[in-house]
Every structure is written in C-alpha cells, then in structure tokens.
C-alpha cells in the first residue's frame, strides 16, 4: 500500500504531462476557434465614437449599409499583437478595397486616440466598447480578433489573433473564400 501511495504522484504527473503534450501538438490552429456567429448576421451593435478621435461610431445598420466586404477588427491600444497587425490591416484596406471597422475594446479613449494618431487610422468607423458588452455579443476570446463580413452583413469568418506572418496567409485564404 505504501508503494502505491509513493507512485501515485508520479502517475498523476505523467497523466497531466501527457495531456499537456497532446494539447500543444497536432497542428491545432488557435485562430480557428469555432463561432456560432459564422453564417449569421452581425449581432446588434450600437457603439458611440471613441472620444478624441474624429472617426464616427457605428451601429449594425450602419455596417450593413456599407458597400462590399468589411473587416470588423476588435483592438486595443494596450494590446501588443494589435500593434503588430495594424500595418497589415491598413494595407489590406487600401490595396484590397476593404472597409475597415474598428471596435476599441476596454480601452481608455485618450490611449486609443494616441495609438491611432501614432499608427494611423485606417477605419471608416470606430466604436468604443469600454464596457466590453460588444465583445461579449461578438463572442471574442481576446484581442485582436477580426471578422470578415460579406456585403449583406453576414459574418463569414472569425480570425482570433493577429493578422501577421502565417496568420496573414490564412486570413487571405479566408478572404479569398468569401470573395468567391
């Protein structure tokens, strides 16, 4: 009985280690998180502008009325990966003819204004989500997250994580699927 009690911690460590190795392997894509919003209209949003930024806020109706494919990007000034993806989103908007809509998530308005001033503001509209309610409605797991929305206002793809490196390639593949 004493030997069994001695071996029990080792056995538990091996089981937990096995699950950890399984969870970290297998080519899992964290940006491929499932979302119940795929193939659904954008949820009802009514976001005021970010104080100190000349870009207007938006509602879901505003978003649907905009022409073409839209990228709804949830970002924050305190988010390092948001800063990393910002040049790519700016370029995509300009070169691919996409409308960028921003949701400034749980951010101080003055910090967001400074961040946009420093990096440039590619957004046609930016809604302030200081309370995090829109993030809940969109089902985000964190920032950044970007949703590809078709011309009819239907969410076609959700991309969790920054649109950089291999993530940019996967994002472009998803964008090409929406265009077809």
Automatic annotation (TrEMBL):
InterPro entries: Periplasmic_diS_OxRdtase_DsbE, Redoxin, Thioredoxin-like_sf, Thioredoxin_CS, Thioredoxin_domain, Thioredoxin_ResA/DsbE_sf. GO terms for molecular function: disulfide oxidoreductase activity. It holds the Pfam family Redoxin. It is found in: Cell envelope. It comes from the Bacteria. Coiled coil: none annotated. Keywords: Cytochrome c-type biogenesis, Disulfide bond, Redox-active center. Its main location: other. The keyword Transcription regulation does not apply. GO terms for cellular component: outer membrane-bounded periplasmic space. GO terms for biological process: cytochrome complex assembly. Residues 36-177 form the Thioredoxin domain. Belongs to the thioredoxin family. DsbE subfamily. This is Cytochrome c biogenesis protein CcmG, thiol:disulfide interchange protein DsbE. The lineage of its organism: Bacteria, Pseudomonadati, Pseudomonadota, Alphaproteobacteria, Rhodobacterales.
């Amino acid at each position: 009985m004493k030997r069994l009690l001695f071996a029990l911690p080792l056995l538990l460590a091996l089981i937990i280690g096995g699950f950890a190795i399984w969870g970290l392997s297998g080519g899992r894509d964290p940006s491929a998180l499932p979302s119940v919003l795929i193939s659904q209209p954008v949820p009802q949003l009514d976001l005021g502008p970010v104080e100190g930024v000349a870009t207007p806020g938006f509602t879901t109706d505003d978003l649907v009325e905009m022409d073409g494919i839209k990228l709804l990007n949830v970002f924050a000034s305190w988010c390092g990966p948001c800063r990393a993806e910002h040049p790519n989103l700016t370029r995509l908007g300009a070169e691919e003819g996409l409308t960028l809509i921003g949701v400034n998530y749980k951010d101080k308005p003055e910090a967001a204004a400074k961040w946009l001033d420093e990096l440039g503001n590619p957004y046609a509209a930016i809604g302030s989500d200081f309370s995090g309610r829109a993030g809940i409605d969109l089902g985000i797991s964190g920032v950044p997250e970007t949703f590809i929305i078709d011309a009819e206002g239907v969410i076609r793809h959700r991309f969790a994580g920054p649109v950089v490196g291999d993530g940019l390639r996967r994002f472009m593949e998803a964008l090409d699927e929406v265009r077809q």
